[in-house]
Structures are given as C-alpha cells and as structure tokens.
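LAB NOTEBOOK - FOLDING QUEUE
OPERATOR: T.R.
BATCH SIZE: 2
PURPOSE: Compare the predicted structure-token outputs for two unrelated chains run back to back under identical settings.
PRIORITY: normal
REVIEWER: second-year student, initials M.K.

ITEM 1
FIELD SEQUENCE / FIELD STRUCTURE:
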Amino acid sequence: MEKRFDRKLVLETGEEYYGRGFGDGREAVCELVFNTSMVGYQEIVSDPSYTDQAVVMTYPIIGNYGITDDDFETKTPTIGGLIVREYNDQPSNFRYTRTLAEILEENHIPGISQIDTRKLTRSIRDKGSRRALLTGVDTPVEEALKRIAGTPVPHDAVSRVSCKKRWYSRTANHRFNVVAVDCGIKLNIVRSLNARGCNVTVVPWNTDAAQIRAMKPDGVFLSNGPGDPEDVVPVIELVRALRGEAPIFGICLGHQLISLAYGARTYKLKFGHRGGNHPVKNLETGKIEITSQNHSYAVDADSLAGTGLELTHINLLDNTVEGVRCERDRVFSVQYHPESAPGPQDSGYLFDRFIKSMKEAQRHA
C-alpha cells in the first residue's frame, strides 16, 4: 500500500480497494453499482435514483469538464458516493462554474479516485451488487465489516428525496395540465413536458387520489426514483385509484409501480442497468432504440399475463421488460429514460405519445 492512498473501499465480502479521497471525507455505507456512460457525470451525481448507492464510473477520466449550473437533475444531490479511476480537478469547459469535488463536498457526498474501476466493475458484474464502506485507509477490515453489517438497508429512499410540498413549472401558451408524482423526479423530465406545452404541478409521493382529482389534470406522470418499488405502496394505490380516469405515463420506478398496481411482479437484477448504451426493441414498430438506463429492479415478464398490461418494449441484452401499456385505461410506461440528457435522443417520441393520449382524452371528455 502506497502512502498516497488516504481512503479505501471495503466490500461486504471482504475485498479492499485503496484510493485517494475527494469531495466529502465522511464514511458511507452504500450499495455498489456501475455506470457505463462516457459523459454525463453531473447528471448521474444529481439523479435522485442513485440515493444510497455508490456509483463506479467505468469511463476512466471524471471531472474534466466541471459542473454547470444549468445541468442539474435535482437541486440537492443525494447520491451515496462516487468511485472513479482518475479525477480531474482542472476543468477545461467554458460553461463550468464549479468543480465536481466542490459539489460533492457541498452536499456531503464522499468520492474516491485511483481505484481499479475495471477490476471493481468486473467484480460487480460477476458477483452482483454488494454493499461497501467508503472509509479511511487505516480502518481495519474487521471493523469495516462490522459497520457494514450494522447499517440497516434503507427502505425510505423515496420519502427522503420527494418534494415536501407541491411546486409548479409553467410554460407560455400551455395546452395541458400535468400532475407529476415526485418519487425522485429528474428536472429534465419536467423540462421535456414544458417543451411540449404542459404546465406541470409536481406533488409529493404520498399525495392521494382525491387531491390529484381536485387539480383536474389532463394527465398524470409517475417519475423515476430510488429503491425497491414494493416499498412505495401509496403510489401503487394511487395508480389503482386513478387508472382509467386520466392518461398516466410512467418512467423507470414509475413503470415498475404501474406494473405492480396492475398485479405484475418485480424482482431485483443481479447488477442492474446503468448507462447510455442499452439497446431496446419497440415491439410495435420493430425499431431498436439506444437508451439511457438507471435501475436495479425489473418487471417479471411472466407475471404480466392476465393483468391487462401489454408488453411493448424489451431489452435486447437480457430480454427484460422495458415497456408496457393498457390501451383501455390510456396507461403506458417505460423502464428507460427518454428524457436523458446528455444521452440518446431515440425515445423522445414517448412524451409525444403522452401528449397524443391527453388530446384524445380531452376529445372524449
């Protein structure tokens, strides 16, 4: 072990990875996941879906274009930690306003660099996601394992990242009013709806059906978010109460919650899908979309039978469910992120489908 190392990562299975800390210096127990994106570390760091997770970036140089004020996905990042091969603290981007380390420090997020991220990624791929402690270099392995074992697995992530009161994002000459249920919503989803003529009212995750009906929405959107979808019972019940009353569109966690509300099952993937390069087949058109993804759970394809949901998209890497719909109720959802920025633009049509569904509902009202 060289003296230049001042931090280390200890996995619950006993492996140690030595590196150098940046950002906040606190200890953290997190679930380890990896992301294969070549760009977009600011969007990853500020995506609420990464709450309680330490993200291993497979691209080797991180921090080189800094942080820009306009590109956050949430105002207060809640990622558990960031693990990189090489951290660059001298950005060469005319738009940058702060460094990545400054943002991590401001939000009490620990980071570690000089890690062999290729070895760590292979370990996650082969053995699955595991928990780990990001700690000081002098912490004994036995003590680190005790701290990991003594840290409960959280089940309240959505309640922590959701807004505490409703807020509004309006646009000029709007045509539709959308209520977005915030389970950890990315700001670019709101921007994508605004760009298509929607005024958006963002409400807390535990808002009930009566409150949403009182807002008279043209459509309801269910956002992405962290954690196990089975923990988010209020939103599952909300879908059951509102389906058939107004068009409903869900992304990522919202997709899983819609599936659970209709009676399907979800399960945890071995290491999840995270990155901007997942091929997804649209079963209606036969087209292949290159998608951006971030999730640990998936919908069980076999459990869709008899639910009233139709399979619309599949992942070509592992044949997992990527999209479902119920035409009768004007409900549809996808597992991936059509709003992802930066990232593939192949899937922007899904927002247009939501607009079309709201137009049709207005005509039949």
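ITEM 2
FIELD SEQUENCE / FIELD STRUCTURE:
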Amino acid sequence: MSNAGKIRSLRENLGLRRTEFGLKIGCTYGQVERLEDGLTPLTEELRIKICREYGVNEDWFDGSSGVPQLEENRDLRRKRLKKILEESGLSQREFGKRTHTSASLLNEILSGKKQLTIKYAKKIEETLGVGTDWLLYGDEEAKEYPLSDAVIKYMKKHPEIRKEIYERMETDAIVISKDAEGT
C-alpha cells in the first residue's frame, strides 16, 4: 500500500474527517486530500508529525501493511472512557443521558464491541468538560479545560478575552526567547 493509501486508511479507521485529521498535523483539508490522492509527497517532517500525533510506529510507512496500533488505541480509549465514567460517579444510564446517548452504546464501547468515535468523544467533551484529544489520543494537556466548540464560540463573542490571551502568549514568547538566548 502506498503512503497515500496508508494515510487515508489511518484517517478513516480513526473516524476522522480530513479537516480533523489535518488539524493535529498542521495541514488543511486540501493538503490532506492531496496527500491521500498521492498528489503531494509525504515529507519527512509530516511523516514524523503523523507518527507522533496518532501513535503510529515509523516503520509502518516503510513496508508493513494494514492500519497500525488500532486495537491498542481502542483499548486505551476504552480505559480513558472507563476512567471518566468512574471519576464522574455516574451510572452508565445517567452518563448516557447526559451525553445524549444510550447506556447500551456506552456499554458496547466499554466492552470493546464498538469503538469510541470522535462524535461521541465530542459529546463527552461538551457535557463533562473532558477533552476529546485526551479521550481519543491520550493528550494529557487536553484533558481538562478543553478548547471545545462552546469555548471557541464564547471567545468569538468576547474579543477582550482573546486580547488577553494574545497578550499572555506574547509575554510567554518573550520569556521563552530570552531563556533561549541565555538572558
């Protein structure tokens, strides 16, 4: 299988749209589409990003076929979902009600019959404030206070908050660059 086919297969098996897949690796929808169609070559930098962001073994691009690590990834997703369920103190029924899904779907995911999809992870994020990137990929920095659609909507309506964030980012960048220069 070509690298283009492998990228498409990986994205589809992760249940991600091109935009969502590209966001984590710094690509647009069109760039992912061109990669999947073989119109744009896979650079070493992008290959490394894909491997890091999606937990792919770098050797996978060099010859092995099929979709990498999905079973392991599913197990990790289930463990994180189970952890959230336990931490919430909710029954499966109540958890399902809050996330607007059935307790049976939750049970099927926890038992491994179905996988945790990005759509369901987003429902959990919106309802319980647990980051989608943590649920799906284990990104510890994204577990609490996720950048959900609700947060982004709120920030769009409050430019003063965006301004404060940009000012903090500029301050941090100055500190980082001073540290890098040894001052």
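REVIEWER COMMENT (ITEM 2): Residues 90 and 96 are 9 Å apart (CA to CA).
FOLLOW-UP: none requested
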